[in-house]
Amino acid sequence: EADELNLTALEHATAIDMHEPMSHAHLDLAAGAIMRGDFDTATRSVEAARALGDRQALTWRHRMRGDLYTGQIALATGLAEDALRIGDEVVAKADAMGVERHGTLARLLVVHAKRQLRTPVDPADVEALLSALDRIAGLEAWRLTADTASVFGVKRWSDLAERRATGKVLVEPT
Q1: Angle between helices 155-166 and 123-136 (to 10 degrees)
Q2: Which of 26, 78, 81, 120 could be 49's S-S partner, Cβ–Cβ 3.0 to 4.6 Å?
């Protein structure tokens, strides 16, 4: 259903030549395709968002999001070195701009890529990233935590993912 709604939004935005919602729709379609494991569709959706150029206010945000998806696609298709490079690039851009959400998500991509490359990863660093998710990626926190728990084989992270999925997580006020 989400894809149908995104396709409808894309159709309406295209009809009135509104590039920002067109980009959102393409990137939302990419996200759905990644979750389904349809990486060809995800790649085409990211490329469609990029093809809109910079004729909108939040181009920088959409580029970072597209880059994160490109890194996730690379990782999922066995291109961990590409995922690592892309993740590091997004971390640098996000840090330079003070964009915590994208920086944290990119750091998570980096630790996943390092794990796939069998490069040492400090579990305390991963723990800190997972701790930030409720604040910066609330709706996605459970899935990202579950994915990380699965990749690293850490039971307490799996338990945290389950609590996040059921809404039984206490979030410290900021």
Answers
A1: 0
A2: 26
Half-sphere exposure of 92 (CA within 13 A, CB side): 6
pLDDT value at position 58? 84
Nearest 10 degrees: CA dihedral of 85, 120, 139, 61? -20
The full DSSP string for 65-84 is HHHHHHHHHHHHTT-HHHHH
The DSSP code sequence of 78-119 is T-HHHHHHHHHHHHHHHHHHT-HHHHHHHHHHHHHHHHHTT-
CA distance 52 to 19: 7
Q: How far apart are CA 67 and CA 135, in angstroms?
A: 22
